[in-house]
User: What shape does this take?
Amino acid sequence: MLGNFTYCNPTKLYFGQNALDNLGEELKRYGQTVMLVYGGGSIKRNGIYDRVVSILRNCGKRIVEDPGVMPNPTVEKLYEGCRIAKENRVDLILAVGGGSVCDYSKAVSVSAYCEGDPWEKYFVRFEDVDNAIIPVGCVLTMVGTGSEMNGGSVITNHSQKLKIGHVFGENVFPKFSVLNPEFTFTLPKYQMVAGFFDIMSHILEQYFSGTDDNTSDYIMEGLLRSLIHSAEIAVQNPTDYEARSNIMWIATWALNTLVAKGKATDWEVHMIGQAVGAHTDATHGMTLSAVSLAYYRHILPYGLPKFRRYAVNVWNVSPEGKTDEAVAREGLEAMERWMRMLGLVMNIRELGATEEMLEGIADSTLINQGGYKALTRQDVLEILRESL
Ligand code: NZQ
Ligand code: ZN
Assistant: This one.
């Protein structure tokens, strides 16, 4: 393990079919006014809204609703949430939904009492929080982002064609998260598999960095094997509790800071994917699946030993009698077969990108230094062309 680090994760998790039973006890720790944040209405259709509201009422809470959080929450919606939170002096923000609802709730929690423009402060200048933070709790209904146990918050600014994430510190992590795998059963298949690939991408963004013998890599190989296995079951039978519960747990551990320890981490697939998202508003996980293979084939020569290890340890490729490069490429071919089997989107054209948009998408792509190759703008353009 290279480097020095601190590890602390303050989010308390309630996991399993009875997880929501703990919400009442948890609510006692907070003041009277709860801002109930949710998306476009799925929680009303599947009954989760009624269950949560009844618990809030039984606890005597005053409920302030903030519905309509869209996938890829926007800066305009953030301003609206800040106004609601401040005017009502809310004591707790309860996010009931997927990553968008959780991310948005964290953004409101740090922005409601922020002096000046929160978009500029947190998402352009990446400043730390120096004002009051409203605590956030989460009831998760969509698996993938890991937002339920991390400080990440991604906000989209359509007028500036930017989709940017700020990874806040422990003081912004949800105080608690309720994880009932059954709450994800009503997800449409498109969202379900997009979430599966988001999980894989989070792990690979951290795995494909560094050259040391790092325990984090061994943990990630285990998570990947479990994900590949469970996703194969879940795509055939979406209500297989064992598979969906494993996937929910993998998603949380893929991005709750544990496996990043001792790793440089890359995140370039996310940078390209988020730029595609800023221009198309496409589903996050699908923006990643559409660009990943082109990206990994592009950087494979620079991280060959790790790509070989990935092929052997994760995809069971036999290395005998083959060059390292052949083994590494077979690993990516196995990954591609798995992705196609899940029904993921494999090109950005299907997400609404066109040849004419590529220069603009490249301009919106932030370039990181932590992976096996620091890309140039030309590299980004080539990867986008290969992904079209
Ligand atoms: O809005 P509703 O009606 O609830 O419908 C949602 C939405 O349309 C639906 N859905 C969620 N749970 C459901 C359900 N439909 C039926 N049954 C359920 N149980 O699914 C759709 C997508 O939801 P969304 O929250 O947008 O998906 P996801 O969890 O993938 O979140 C995506 C956002 O998270 C950001 C992404 O960039 C994107 O903005 N990310 C956050 C990260 C973090 N905090 O660390 C990291 C990720 O890499 C990612 O960037
Ligand atoms: Zn992601």
